[in-house]
Amino acid sequence: MKPTLSRRIVAEFTGTLLLLAAVVGSGIMGEKLAAGNVALALLANTIATGAALVAIILAFGPISGAHLNPAVTLADAWQVGSRGARPGLTSSLRSQGHSPG
User: Fold this and answer.
1) Cα-trace Rg, the chain
2) Nearest-angstrom CA–CA distance, 43 and 39
3) Closest CA to 58 of 45, 48, 68
């Protein structure tokens, strides 16, 4: 059963907000834990953001494809609805301006 468009949009907005919170939170965490060491702050920020991104993709991927950009989900739904295209890589690439063979 395919999720409805409204469910996909809510999943995208939620995923985007969680990603934003993870990026901001990991930046603050890295800065506080690094005690002035910029390299350590960047490493902590990168690891925490990457882990959060993996968790978000695994949680929302089956619902919306985990584009983490509601505009891409809307464009994908519009293309599938108006042209009968199958969702996936081709639709995603077309929504970004590419024209795969």
Assistant:
1) 17
2) 6
3) 68
How do the domains of the chain map onto residue ranges? 5-95
**CA atoms of 20 and 56, how far apart (whole Å):** 11
Please name which of 31, 51, 49, 50 lies closest in space to residue 41, comparing C-alpha atoms: 31
Query: Over the stretch 56-95, which tens digit does the pLDDT of each residue have?
Result: 999 988 888 877 876 776 777 777 665 544 455 555 555 5
SS3 string, 72-92, reads: HHHHHHHHHHHHCCCCCHHHH
Instruction: Please count the CA atoms within 13 angstroms of the CA of 47 that sit on its side-chain side.
Output: 8
Q: DSSP H helical segments within the chain, as ranges?
A: 5-34, 38-64, 70-83, 89-95
Who's near 5: CB < 8 A, 6+ residues apart?
A: 77
Mean pLDDT of the chain: 79
d(CA 84, CA 72): 17
